[in-house]
Every structure is written in C-alpha cells, then in structure tokens.
Amino acid sequence: xxxxxxxxxxxxxxxxxxxxxxxxxxxxxxxxxxxxxxxxxxxxxxxxxxxxxxxxxxxxxxxxxxxxxxxxxxxxxxxxxxxxxxxxxxxxxxxxxxxxxxxxxxxxxxxxxxxxxxxxxxxxxxxxxxxxxxxxxxxxxxxxxxxxxxxxxxxxxxxxxxxxxxxxxxxxxxxxxxxxxxxxxxxxxxxxxxxxxxxxxxxxxxxxxxxxxxxxxxxxxxxxxxxxxxxxxxxxxxxxxxxxxxxxxxxxxxxxxxxxxxxxxxxxxxxxxxxxxxxxxxxxxxxxxxxxxxxxxxxxxxxxxxxxxxxxxxxxxxxxxxxxxxxxxxxxxxxxxxxxxxxxxxxxxxxxxxxxxxxxxxxx
Length: 364
Known about the structure:
Structural class: alpha/beta
Oligomer: single chain
CATH architecture of the largest domain: Alpha-Beta Complex
Distance between the termini: 24 Å
Mean pLDDT: 96
Largest sheet: 7 strands, mixed
CATH topology of the largest domain: Quinone Oxidoreductase, Chain A, domain 1
C-alpha cells in the first residue's frame, strides 16, 4: 500500500543554536518494512534541547527534524508491515533492527542499526515521518485516530505521544530492577521521566520515595504514588540517607534491596543517588548529563550492589506501558500541555529557560 503523492512539512535544525527552519518535502513511499506515519503529537524531550542548544551531535547529518516522542496514524506501509493504514500508533523512540547479533541475544538497546527519530532519521517535529514498521505500538480505542479521549487516561492520541520515551524509558528500568510489591523505590529527580518512574513503581506495588528540589513537582505527584517526598536542598547526604532509612524502617522494609532510579540528569542528583547505595541495592541511571562526578566504585563490591544504565525501551514492552496509562494507573494528562507545532522554536526556548514545567506536546 502506498501513499498518494503529496507534500508534508517539518521544522529542521540546520545548525546548533540556530532557529529551526520550516521546510516542505514530498511524502515518501514506504519501502519493505517501513511505515509512513501522520504525526498526531510529538513530545519535547531534554534530548532535543541537548541537540539544539548544548552541542550534542545527532547521528544524522543536518538539516534534521528533531523529536522522538511521536504518536500518529499510519498512512501507508510497505510490504511485510505488521500494521495497516489507518491504525493509530505510538512510534518507539528507539527501534532495534531485530536481526543483528545484539538483537538475537536479547540486547536490543545496544543494536548498532537501531533507528531513533530525530537522531538517526527525520523526527517528529513534522507532519509526517517514515519509520520502521516493526515495533509500532497499536493504540486501541474507538476514535483514537480522530482525537477521542482514550480509556481512562483522559488523553487524546496526541497527548499519548509522551509514552514513546517519558513513560516507556522508566518502565523498562522498573522492569529491569524487578520492582514488586513492598519494595522501596527511590526516584531522584521528579521531572518528566522521573515523575512517570515514580508512578510506574507505585503501580508495581512499591513504596515510593521521591527526591526533588522543586516543590511544585513534589506537590504535583502527591496524589500520584509518592509515599514520601524529600527536598534534597534541605539536608546533606548523610541526613538524607538517615531519613530514608528511618522511613523504610517505619514501613517495615529494612535497609537492603533498595531500588534507586536516577532520573535528574544532573551531577547533584547522580551524587545523591550514589550516596543511597546500600546492601543488594539496584541503581538504574536514566537521566543524562555530559558532566562527570567523583565516586567510590568499590561501593558496588562492598554492598554487593548493581548499577546499570537504561537506554530507551524495547518495543515489545510498549503495549504493557501503554496499558498502564489506558487503565488510569499512570496519569499522563495532568503532566502534559499541548502547543501548535508552529510554536516549536518558542516552546523549546521556554523549556530551556524553565518557563514551561509540564511536558510539551507539539501538534501539527
């Protein structure tokens, strides 16, 4: 099945720091294994800010449309596609090839041929994008393609675009940490990703501690799974650890086996997360910063602890993360705000300057 010949548009990064430029392009015909998706919404991630403002280099040569949190409707597919035209979908932020040695060994996040919109290929700050058809996550629900509110989420398809990274990335981290009922989960940084991480851990039955200097973020999650909120600026590392240990004791959880999720992407947050490492702890590093911190690596040995990174989320986990949102167990609607795609430059600058505190979703 192929798309009728027509044009689309995208907002392209031409140089680091330069304003994005709106360009038109002929809609491509999907080849084998590809799908052309009409964008319903595209979330704004701090990775986009890193590319545009901080000198992080995308793998695709410029000009390039950024944006990797995409939901939309399939308009055309090539041969061998598991989805059909007209299907509402979420586009994985990272799609492994599924065929290489890494993928066959179950190490999809390290696939050398992975495809990330807005990094490896043209991204979602656009009317359409061409992506691998494998891994596309169908969104159930009558009227999804027409903008209906879906399930118990209170969200439209456009607003569900943030599932593609802000929700699924911490979902994979929580799954890898094997968080379960009555585990202590500590989330450092309650921004876009960290807020959803706290909610997901709560949905899995954990007792959740959130560490975040922004009072608005702490208060915003008070009714969404936080059992204890801590301002790290109010106490030093030693007293913070004592406070968490005392809380764990009150809850009958003890001081071992803590699941710690570093979501701040800030050196101070990373230092805090490391300082909480204890017996049999699992530290998951989700946030990104180019800055370095100093730490004593032997703590891993002494505590028989585990530390691992988390890059994206395997596409096969997307349906489960989506279902948490559709069931109302993870709230998205209170934490997103929609803007016209035409305002993309202003939105990116306002996010950079901390003038927008929700997760922006751009709508073509």
